Every structure is written in C-alpha cells, then in structure tokens.
C-alpha cells in the first residue's frame, strides 16, 4: 500500500488550495476508509476530515467544517482535500491515511495503518 500526497504550498490568508493523495496497492472493489490529518510544528497529529468508501459518509473536525471538503475519485484512486478560507492556523504538514475495511471513527489517526509522507501547507 502506498499513499503519495501533493498540492501543498504557500498561500495568503483567505486563499484556497487543493491537496491530492494518490493511493495504490489496495484490493479493488473492497471497502476502505481514508482521511486527512495535519501536524503543526510542536503539536501532535490532528484530525481534519475522513470518509468511508461506498457510503459517502464524510466527517470533519470542527475547526475545518464549512471550509474544507474531502472527496475521492475512485476511477483515479485519488483522495482530495479542497481547502478554502485558509487561515494561518491551518499551517501544518498534511497527511493522508487509509485502511482497508471500515473503522468506527474515520477521524482517529490511530485507526489508520497506512500513511503518506505529508505535504506542507503554509498560510501567511
């Protein structure tokens, strides 16, 4: 299983970015959960958004609700995070995570065994 994030960068407050995460190595046509997490300097890994495949249930941390949107394109095996109205508090290293099968809490980092290397988002 491999996850590769892209799309990070520097943006001014109020701006937007779209992160992508290319997934490979998963068993085709099976259920899975995927999510986005972030880690700011000196802080722990924090929840951002999660989704269960096949059910279209999406979950968001309160801090990003209404500003961020998680989606996936199964034909491209890619996960996205559309981020709008960015603030300096959104500055962090953003990771995507995935697990085969369904989990009870798609926003809990410890439930994911597979992680990407992260992509930096800086808002000034």
What does this structure look like?
It is a single chain. The chain is an all-beta fold. β5 (45-52) and β6 (57-60) form a beta hairpin. The chain is globular and about 40 Å long. The chain has strands at 2-6, 9-11, 17-24, 32-39, 45-52, 57-60, 68-73, 78-83, 92-100, 114-115, 119-123. The termini are far apart.
Distance between the termini: 34 Å
Outline type: globular
Structural class: mainly beta
DSSP E strands, number: 11
- Average residue-wise pLDDT: 92
Share in helix: under 10%
Q: Secondary-structure element order, as H and E? A: EEEEEEEEEEE
Write the layout of secondary structure elements.
Blueprint: E1 2-6, E2 9-11, E3 17-24, E4 32-39, E5 45-52, E6 57-60, E7 68-73, E8 78-83, E9 92-100, E10 114-115, E11 119-123
Key phrases:
mainly beta, 7-stranded mixed sheet, 52% strand, globular
What does this entry show, briefly?
0% of the residues lie in helices and 52% in strands.
């Amino acid at each position: 299983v491999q996850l590769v994030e892209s799309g990070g960068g520097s943006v001014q407050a109020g701006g937007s970015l779209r992160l992508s995460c290319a997934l490979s190595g998963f068993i085709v046509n099976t259920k899975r959960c995927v999510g986005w997490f972030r880690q700011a300097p000196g802080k722990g890994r924090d929840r951002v958004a999660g989704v269960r495949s096949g059910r279209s249930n999406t979950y968001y941390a309160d801090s990003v609700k209404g500003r961020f949107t998680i989606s996936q394109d199964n034909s491209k095996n890619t996960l996205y995070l559309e981020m709008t109205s960015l603030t300096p508090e959104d500055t962090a290293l953003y990771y995507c995570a995935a697990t085969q099968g369904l989990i009870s809490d798609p926003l809990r980092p410890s439930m994911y065994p597979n992680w990407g290397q992260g992509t930096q988002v800086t808002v000034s």
